[in-house]
Amino acid sequence: MKRFLISILLAGxxxxxxxxPSFCEIPQPAATPKLWQLDIEYKAPLPIKxxxxxxxxxxxxxxxxxxTNHTNADQLFVPEFLLYTGTGQMLRSGQGVPPGxxxxxxxxxxxxxxxxxxxxTGKLLVGDDNSKTGVAIWQDFDVKAGEFDVFIGGLSGETTxxxxxxxxxxxxxDNDGNKKTVTKQTVVLAKTMQLTYKVAGEAASRxxxxxxxxKQNWVMR
Length: 221
Known about the structure:
There is one protein chain. By secondary structure, the chain is mainly beta. It contains 3 helices and 12 strands; from the N terminus they run H-E-E-E-E-E-E-H-H-E-E-E-E-E-E. The strands form 3 sheets. Strands 5, 6, 9, 10, 11 and 12 form a 6-stranded antiparallel sheet that branches. Strand 10 and strand 11 form a beta hairpin.
């Protein structure tokens, strides 16, 4: 459990490379939502083998989901999907994924209205008629990982500020895109959905591997 809390904290900073802080207790989300919260429906992540022009066949993983705004106001939705394996590998959706992979998934799913991360980002209007269906895509992960977690951000307005046990130095980008080092004493965590999956299979059968949902819960990261 500790490795998950540490990884959640580090991923939540999203500020680049930095020294690892000592372990601290991560706060839990409120039992009853304090602020707005979007509803999400999702399918289990699936592998897909894609052969792009001039490239060798490669395995990617994708997760189709639908978000609906049942709050009392329009909300800004900025999807964030992070995959973290039991072997310590961390992948952000879209990272290292060529555009052609989305086209292949759209064709396989037979859904011309399926949206990529860019098209999903923006104002989400209230009501079922304004639901949006999107897909998160990752590069293939460690075949030795028998378990992985998917952390979904952007679904809630609940945040909390966490005091770090010791200040840390982080590398950030300024307004001009230049790197600079700053010292952080606090970090803002957001309410995030955590999905835990088990997956079996070897490299030879990777394209047909199935992921089984084990647990769903909310965390702060």
